[in-house]
Specification:
- The protein contains ten helices and 16 strands.
- With 361 residues, it is α/β, with parallel strands linked by helices.
- The protein folds into two domains: 25-37 and 124-298 and 343-360, von Willebrand factor, type A domain (Rossmann fold), CATH 3.40.50; 41-123 and 300-339, no CATH class.
- The chain has a six-stranded mixed sheet with strand order 5-6-4-13-1-15.
- Strand 5 (111-113) and strand 6 form a beta hairpin.
- It is globular and about 55 Å long.
- 42% of the residues are buried.
- Residues 1-36, 84-92, 96-109 and 349-361 have low confidence and may be disordered.
């Protein structure tokens, strides 16, 4: 079996991934390095009411998880400190009222254990990759886009780590994950416009970098046009994001009606990963989209479980629901499954070295 045939086969099967040909740079790694072995399944869950307001203060026992209809036992449960303690309690959210009342007097411990043996943690941090379209589609609004991204990065909690990547035909890993947000903003300001747009190739590589990380991990894509240079389909990106628990948010400056094919791909990739797609008509809506993503990241519940015995070695379907009649009225958003793959994900060598360098600095 030749290396070229093997690489093409791997891209289709998703056991391995990336380009089967076309231009590549040293930064774009050998796709055969990506294989996944899911031991602990992590879910990021957004809970909202009928008005779109986030529901806070829920407990592990309020959730039920099944995988291929097999009930699962929640192992860990995480909620942002900001979501659980700084949210204004609403009358239709009894759990939020309780959390707010307790927060007014007592600071919650970072880690606790529920009566059912679930480890409960309160977090404020996340790992966020910003992927910026610098293709020739972006020429007219380049500066406005940089401003919106810079403001988003500044708004992140100080403990959150952010990486800044850009793409045109190839992916540029401008700044590795770091909590030094000033350094990230400097990377944003140093970007320059390029040529064609290979979004799906670049997004797939970014998912690979995010895959080995623990905790909440998300990719925020800022796109100004359709993909015209990738060799992988958006379906591959979507499935890999699902299988690695990576949330994808996409902000497109093109309204959906202008490019329905790309719009449908953007919506599917984000939805199945537990994220959202936004179509912004102007710079004000771009800023609003970034603010919405920030709020979403803050209000996510993160649940994990060790899968029960399951003979299915392929795609596994996940269902999450809320327990009790008073909670049935709320809406859940999370990924709906994952594919079990054989070997653990390893980040690219370049990503690892840059991340270590950033931590040292």
């Amino acid at each position: 079996m030749t290396q070229k045939w093997f690489t093409c086969f791997a891209a289709v099967s998703l056991l391995f991934f990336l380009q089967c040909g076309g231009p590549r740079t040293a930064a774009q790694d050998d796709p055969s390095h990506l294989r996944v072995n899911v031991v602990l399944v992590q879910l990021n869950v957004a809970v909202t009411d009928n008005k779109g307001n986030y529901v806070t203060g829920l407990k592990p026992e309020d959730f039920s998880i099944s995988e291929d209809k097999i009930p699962q036992k929640i192992s860990t449960f995480e909620e942002s400190v900001e979501a659980g303690h700084m949210e204004t309690a609403r009358k239709d959210q009894p759990h939020a009222r309780d959390a707010a009342a307790k927060a007014s007097n007592v600071e919650a411990p970072l880690t606790a254990t529920s009566a059912a043996g679930v480890t409960i943690q309160h977090l404020t941090d996340a790992n966020v990759f910003v992927l910026f379209d610098t293709s020739n589609y972006m020429y007219r609004s380049f500066v406005f886009a940089q401003d919106a991204i810079a403001d988003f990065i500044r708004s992140m909690d100080e403990s959150s780590k952010v990486a800044f990547y850009s793409y045109s035909r190839n992916l540029s890993r401008a700044t590795a994950l770091t909590s030094d947000h000033f350094r990230i903003v400097s990377g944003v300001r140093s970007t320059v416009a390029g040529d064609d747009a290979a979004l799906y190739n670049s997004l797939l590589l970014t998912v690979k970098d995010a895959a080995p990380l623990k905790g909440r991990k998300a990719i925020v894509v800022f796109s100004n046009g359709p993909d015209n240079a990738s060799s992988v389909p958006p379906e591959d990106v979507a499935e890999l994001a699902q299988s690695t628990g990576t949330i994808i948010y996409i902000i497109s400056t093109r309204v959906a009606q202008e490019d329905p094919v790309s719009a449908a791909a953007f919506e599917r990739m984000s939805k199945v990963s537990g994220g959202k797609a936004y179509f912004a008509k102007n710079w004000r809506e771009e800023r609003q989209a970034f603010a919405s993503i920030k709020e979403d990241l803050v209000h996510l519940y993160t649940l994990s479980y060790y899968p029960q015995a399951n003979p299915n070695r392929g795609w596994r379907s996940i269902k999450v629901k809320l327990n009790g009649k008073e909670l049935e009225k709320y809406h859940l958003r999370t990924r709906d499954g994952y594919r079990l793959l054989p070997v653990a994900v390893q980040p690219s060598e370049e990503f690892t070295s840059r991340a270590n360098e950033a931590d040292v600095k």
